[in-house]
Amino acid sequence: MNRKAMLEQMTDYWNNNMPFNQLLGLKITQFDAQQSEVQFTWQDILIGNPSKKILHGGVTASALDLAGGTVVAANVIAQLTDMTSEALHQSVSKIGTIDLRTDYLRPGRGEKFIVTAHIIRSGSKVAVARMEMHNELGEHIAFGTGTYMVG
Predict the structure, then answer these.
(1) Strand ranges, E, within the chain
(2) Which terminus of the chain, N or C, has less C-beta within 10 A?
(3) 95-118: per-residue pLDDT in tens?
Protein backbone atom coordinates (compact mmCIF):
# COMPACT_ATOMS: atom_id res chain seq x y z
CA MET A 1 0.00 0.00 0.00
CA ASN A 2 1.32 3.50 -0.76
CA ARG A 3 0.78 6.69 1.27
CA LYS A 4 -1.87 8.03 -1.07
CA ALA A 5 -3.90 4.83 -0.68
CA MET A 6 -3.49 5.05 3.11
CA LEU A 7 -4.77 8.63 3.15
CA GLU A 8 -7.72 7.66 0.94
CA GLN A 9 -8.53 4.71 3.20
CA MET A 10 -8.49 6.92 6.30
CA THR A 11 -10.59 9.62 4.60
CA ASP A 12 -13.17 7.02 3.63
CA TYR A 13 -13.16 5.59 7.15
CA TRP A 14 -13.65 8.95 8.89
CA ASN A 15 -16.24 10.15 6.40
CA ASN A 16 -18.32 6.96 6.23
CA ASN A 17 -17.76 4.94 9.42
CA MET A 18 -17.80 7.51 12.22
CA PRO A 19 -21.42 7.96 13.37
CA PHE A 20 -20.72 11.21 15.24
CA ASN A 21 -19.04 12.80 12.21
CA GLN A 22 -21.98 11.67 10.06
CA LEU A 23 -24.49 13.09 12.56
CA LEU A 24 -22.82 16.50 12.35
CA GLY A 25 -22.32 16.24 8.58
CA LEU A 26 -18.52 16.59 8.86
CA LYS A 27 -16.66 15.62 5.68
CA ILE A 28 -12.90 15.52 5.20
CA THR A 29 -12.21 17.26 1.89
CA GLN A 30 -8.41 17.51 2.08
CA PHE A 31 -6.09 15.24 3.99
CA ASP A 32 -2.31 15.39 3.74
CA ALA A 33 0.73 16.16 5.86
CA GLN A 34 0.67 19.88 4.94
CA GLN A 35 -2.96 20.66 5.65
CA SER A 36 -6.28 19.00 6.28
CA GLU A 37 -9.70 20.43 5.57
CA VAL A 38 -13.12 19.53 6.94
CA GLN A 39 -16.36 21.00 5.63
CA PHE A 40 -19.97 20.88 6.74
CA THR A 41 -23.17 22.65 5.86
CA TRP A 42 -25.74 24.32 8.06
CA GLN A 43 -28.42 22.07 9.53
CA ASP A 44 -31.00 23.17 12.07
CA ILE A 45 -29.97 20.27 14.35
CA LEU A 46 -26.63 22.08 14.85
CA ILE A 47 -28.23 25.12 16.51
CA GLY A 48 -26.78 26.12 19.85
CA ASN A 49 -28.75 29.33 20.27
CA PRO A 50 -32.27 29.04 18.79
CA SER A 51 -33.14 32.73 19.10
CA LYS A 52 -30.05 33.77 17.13
CA LYS A 53 -29.76 30.67 14.89
CA ILE A 54 -26.06 30.10 15.50
CA LEU A 55 -23.96 26.94 15.72
CA HIS A 56 -23.58 25.11 18.99
CA GLY A 57 -20.07 25.59 20.37
CA GLY A 58 -19.64 21.83 20.63
CA VAL A 59 -20.13 21.50 16.87
CA THR A 60 -17.42 24.10 16.29
CA ALA A 61 -15.04 22.37 18.71
CA SER A 62 -15.78 18.94 17.20
CA ALA A 63 -15.05 20.17 13.67
CA LEU A 64 -11.79 21.80 14.84
CA ASP A 65 -10.80 18.58 16.62
CA LEU A 66 -11.47 16.41 13.55
CA ALA A 67 -9.41 18.70 11.31
CA GLY A 68 -6.55 18.73 13.84
CA GLY A 69 -6.68 14.97 14.27
CA THR A 70 -6.61 14.34 10.53
CA VAL A 71 -3.56 16.52 9.87
CA VAL A 72 -1.82 14.78 12.78
CA ALA A 73 -2.76 11.38 11.32
CA ALA A 74 -1.40 12.45 7.92
CA ASN A 75 1.90 13.34 9.57
CA VAL A 76 2.01 9.97 11.33
CA ILE A 77 1.36 8.25 7.98
CA ALA A 78 4.10 10.35 6.33
CA GLN A 79 6.60 8.95 8.85
CA LEU A 80 5.66 5.28 8.39
CA THR A 81 8.33 2.98 7.02
CA ASP A 82 6.11 -0.12 7.07
CA MET A 83 3.46 0.47 4.39
CA THR A 84 1.06 -2.31 5.39
CA SER A 85 -2.56 -2.05 6.49
CA GLU A 86 -1.57 -3.44 9.88
CA ALA A 87 1.04 -0.71 10.40
CA LEU A 88 -1.49 1.93 9.35
CA HIS A 89 -4.09 0.64 11.79
CA GLN A 90 -1.59 0.26 14.63
CA SER A 91 -0.14 3.77 14.27
CA VAL A 92 -3.40 5.65 13.65
CA SER A 93 -5.23 3.84 16.47
CA LYS A 94 -2.77 5.42 18.95
CA ILE A 95 -3.87 8.96 18.07
CA GLY A 96 -5.99 10.67 20.70
CA THR A 97 -6.78 14.21 21.74
CA ILE A 98 -4.90 15.30 24.85
CA ASP A 99 -5.99 18.92 24.89
CA LEU A 100 -8.18 21.10 22.71
CA ARG A 101 -8.39 24.86 23.04
CA THR A 102 -11.16 26.59 21.13
CA ASP A 103 -11.37 30.35 20.73
CA TYR A 104 -14.75 31.55 19.47
CA LEU A 105 -14.26 34.76 17.51
CA ARG A 106 -17.80 35.44 16.28
CA PRO A 107 -21.18 33.70 16.21
CA GLY A 108 -21.29 30.60 14.02
CA ARG A 109 -23.49 31.86 11.21
CA GLY A 110 -23.41 30.69 7.62
CA GLU A 111 -24.53 28.08 5.16
CA LYS A 112 -21.19 26.29 4.78
CA PHE A 113 -18.27 25.99 7.17
CA ILE A 114 -14.66 25.21 6.26
CA VAL A 115 -12.14 24.10 8.87
CA THR A 116 -8.45 23.92 8.01
CA ALA A 117 -5.58 22.58 10.10
CA HIS A 118 -1.81 22.47 9.90
CA ILE A 119 0.92 21.00 12.09
CA ILE A 120 2.80 23.17 14.54
CA ARG A 121 4.91 20.32 15.96
CA SER A 122 5.05 16.62 15.23
CA GLY A 123 7.09 14.50 17.62
CA SER A 124 7.31 10.79 18.39
CA LYS A 125 4.87 11.00 21.33
CA VAL A 126 2.92 14.25 20.90
CA ALA A 127 1.82 16.43 17.98
CA VAL A 128 0.30 19.91 18.03
CA ALA A 129 -2.00 21.32 15.35
CA ARG A 130 -3.50 24.74 14.68
CA MET A 131 -7.03 24.92 13.27
CA GLU A 132 -9.28 27.67 11.86
CA MET A 133 -12.95 27.72 10.97
CA HIS A 134 -14.49 30.11 8.43
CA ASN A 135 -17.91 30.34 6.84
CA GLU A 136 -18.55 30.49 3.09
CA LEU A 137 -18.09 34.28 3.16
CA GLY A 138 -14.60 33.90 4.63
CA GLU A 139 -15.62 35.19 8.04
CA HIS A 140 -13.33 33.78 10.72
CA ILE A 141 -15.63 32.00 13.20
CA ALA A 142 -13.13 30.25 15.50
CA PHE A 143 -9.64 28.93 15.84
CA GLY A 144 -8.16 26.23 17.97
CA THR A 145 -5.02 24.49 19.06
CA GLY A 146 -5.04 20.75 19.57
CA THR A 147 -2.50 18.56 21.29
CA TYR A 148 -2.63 14.89 20.27
CA MET A 149 -1.01 11.71 21.53
CA VAL A 150 0.64 9.93 18.61
CA GLY A 151 2.82 7.27 20.21
Answers:
(1) 27-31, 36-41, 47-49, 54-55, 96-104, 112-122, 126-135, 140-149
(2) C
(3) 999 999 999 999 999 999 999 999
- Strands 140-149, 126-135: pairing is antiparallel
Q: Among 78, 86, 68, which Cα is nearest to 131's?
A: 68
User: CA 13, 15, 16, 21 torsion: positive or negative?
Assistant: positive
Give the CATH H-level superfamily of domain 3-149.
Hotdog Thioesterase (3.10.129.10)
Helices 57-78 & 85-92 angle (0-180, nearest 10): 140
Asked if 127 and 70 touch (Cβ cutoff 8 Å), the reply is no
Residue type, 119: I
Please tell me the number of Cα atoms within 13 Å of 27 on its side-chain side. Answer: 8
Q: pTM for the full model?
A: 0.94
Torsion angle defined by CA atoms of residues 96, 13, 22 and 29, in that order, rounded to the nearest 10 degrees: 90
